[in-house]
Amino acid sequence: MITSMHIENFKCFKDFDIDLGPFTVLVGPNDSGKTAFLQAIMIAGAGGPNSKWGPGNLRSNAGIEPGTANLWRGETSRPILIRSSAGRCGESEDDRCYMKVVSSDGAHFHSKVEIRPDAPPMPVEKSESPTEAWLTDWMREAIGRISYYAFDADDLRRPTHPSTDKYHMTRTGVGLPAFLEDIVTRDRKAFFALEEAFYARFPDYEQIVMDKQQHGGHVAYALSLRTRHGETLPASSVSDGVMLSLAYVALCYQPEPPNILLIEEPETGVHYGSLREIVGMLKHLSNERHVQVVLTTHSPYLLDCVEPEDVRVFAKDKDGAVHAAKLSDHPEVESLKKHFMTGEIWTEFDEADIVAGQGGR
Fold first, then answer.
1. Looking at the structure, do residues 86 and 124 belong to the same domain, yes or no?
2. Last residue of some domain: 202, 231, 257?
3. What's this model's pTM, rounded to 2 decimal places?
4. Which end of the chain is less enclosed by CB atoms within 10 A, N or C?
5. pLDDT digits (tens, 9 = 90+) for 294-333
6. Are 294 and 310 in contact (CB under 8 A)?
């Protein structure tokens, strides 16, 4: 789990610090750096403990176009620095390492796991210098695999070819039919639980079907839903809200979830009732399966499902640099919690005032 990050000279982050919990929700105005921050997390997890990677990796792993536009105001005099403190499960209070990623041109990145200078002494049996295998193990257990999604309903509907990369969907959701088929193949019990959760929210449906069809000259999985009235509806005839809800349920019931799950605006296209259930499932994923979840949102209704301690507020200063603050650190929030829900508290303040820690409304 990533416990904190320090970012310098990356996009809108001039000198940025943030702490993260097991379940964190990011809020702020448009163009306040929420998506850029998720991309920074992807960069932190894309490389190994000592690796170099270029434009191709940047596009495929983080969805970022390489170039000097990734540097703060395009300045090349100072490099990008992304430093991520992270801890193995249960050891976050005694973490000795951090991941450091550096780029001088916004296109070529170098990553390295480093030992904190103020770290406690190593146990006697590990007192030797950490080996490459030790650093790799730390990277895998402390940060590990990261998945990043900003779903598009049309992409979720697309027939998809079977993949050797199990449980893979693109950032926008291309690959959902194969993703579901993989769950059926690898853990039928998990798929039954997925179906039960989905049908509880959408009782008109009674079966999720992934058929093999010829698509573009190749075999592909195509998704359809069978109703309790005997109809079989292709994904193209199913509403956006149903498709999006199915995708989120699938994420929560995948047999091998990522270590860190990043999601942009899960409220988009989803009814409030479904949104509450999606957030509840994501919380369960975080609490019971130890997946760190980071969401962005513009919805006060989503915030009503979480505590102020879970919320990080983003805002720009007069120089255009982004800063973040925990909503619960605002001096008035503790008293407001007695009478208002988190979404109501958030809408009472200007984000810049929250980040600055100013009282008053």
1. yes
2. 257
3. 0.93
4. C
5. 999 999 999 999 999 999 999 999 999 999 999 999 999 9
6. no
Statement to judge: residues 191 and 277 lie in one domain:
no
Q: What is the band of 357 on the pLDDT scale with cuts at 50, 70, 90?
A: confident
Tokens, residue 237:
């005839």
Residue 122: per-residue pLDDT: 58
Asked if 267 and 210 sit in the same domain, the reply is no
